[in-house]
Specification:
This protein is 27% helix and 19% strand. The chain is α+β, with helices and mostly antiparallel strands. The protein has an eight-stranded mixed sheet. A four-stranded antiparallel sheet has the order 6-11-8-9, with no helix packed on it. Helix 2 (18-32) crosses helix 5 and helix 3 packs across helix 5. It is globular, with a radius of gyration of 19 Å.
């Protein structure tokens, strides 16, 4: 099965035929846990500027980058090679990355669980460009959630208060060239912790999802698309009506081994105090409630971060 099995859904439908957009997107999520969105309205020149700044940071000397490491358990700033390890994996992922979170005003109740951002002084435009990308993906994610709410026959704005001031994180990822004798893979098989993920940069091959028949399905969308997937929090809320699908980033074939891979997943989260309690409409005789005990979004997050060695 080729990557074309997941047909892109044009974001132009959002304003022209919202119900059609919601049904097409929701059907893809329910079948695969993933959807591909084409024709998004994020300015490509500004995306390119943010990616250029990320590349400039990753090209800095190791000792310079490490000045920005270790902030709030890796929830902000630089996370070096050799840290993140997929749950149950024997070897860490072959990647380094940078985390940007939400800026909160002084005195905000969520500051206890959401650290302040840090910005690399060596890249003067980094704050401006990467900060814009965070806001742009956050806004797009809220609109995707409106479509999901409609697909689930909830109110269109159901998710708006659940993600207001949510603990969302933008991850700037660098997968370096892979030596022939590399141990491990770029990203081991895992499910995302959060509500939904929006990913730019999947054009460079490697991303695969585990289909329900046990096959690994490559996701190589056309340029300019956003890959979006359901996270564990939304899977739990919907009682697995929308599945959080296991996925990975495999090492490239020999002819692409010397090419680095850059991508930017935006992990959209519920607000820290949101109680993840199974939606009554997703409980049926055939699909009884898997999670009778609710849990707050922050408690769920901390539990999962410990499992992947980021807390």
């Amino acid at each position: 099965m080729s990557a074309s099995a997941i047909e892109p859904v044009s974001f132009t439908l959002y304003s022209k035929d919202f119900d059609r957009f919601a049904q097409a997107l929701g059907a893809s999520f329910q079948r695969y846990g993933f959807a591909v969105i084409s024709d998004h309205d994020l300015a490509q020149a500004r995306i390119d500027a943010a990616i250029a700044d990320a590349k400039a940071f990753f090209a800095l000397p190791e000792e310079t980058k490490r000045q920005y490491a270790g902030i709030k358990g890796g929830s902000r700033g630089y996370i070096p090679f050799g840290i993140e390890t997929a749950k149950g994996a024997d070897h860490y992922d072959l990647k380094e990355f940078w985390h940007v979170g939400r800026d909160l005003p002084p005195g905000h109740p969520f500051r206890a669980t959401m650290a302040d951002n840090v910005w690399p002084a060596e890249i003067p435009s980094f704050h401006h460009n990467v900060g814009w990308l965070y806001g742009a993906l956050d806004s797009l994610g809220v609109r995707v959630l409106k479509a999901i709410a409609t697909y689930l026959e909830l109110g269109r704005d159901f998710f708006d208060p659940t993600v207001k001031d949510g603990n969302s994180v933008l991850r700037l990822l660098h997968y370096p060239p892979i030596p022939k004798d590399a141990t491990g893979v770029r990203a081991g098989a895992h499910g995302d912790i959060n509500t939904i993920t929006l990913l730019l940069g999947a054009e460079e091959g490697g991303l695969e999802l585990l289909d329900r028949n046990g096959d690994w399905l490559p996701i190589n969308p056309p340029p300019g698309c956003v890959v979006c997937n359901i996270g564990d929090m939304l899977e739990r809320l919907t009682n697995h009506v929308l599945p959080s699908t296991i996925h990975r980033v495999v090492n490239p074939p020999p002819e692409r081994r010397g090419v680095p891979r850059y991508s930017t997943p935006f992990f959209l989260h519920f607000a820290s105090d949101y109680l993840i309690k199974t939606l009554p409409s997703c409980i049926t005789a055939e699909n009884p409630d898997r999670y009778p005990e609710p849990i707050t979004a922050d408690a769920f997050l901390q539990q999962r971060l410990r499992e992947i060695k980021l807390a």
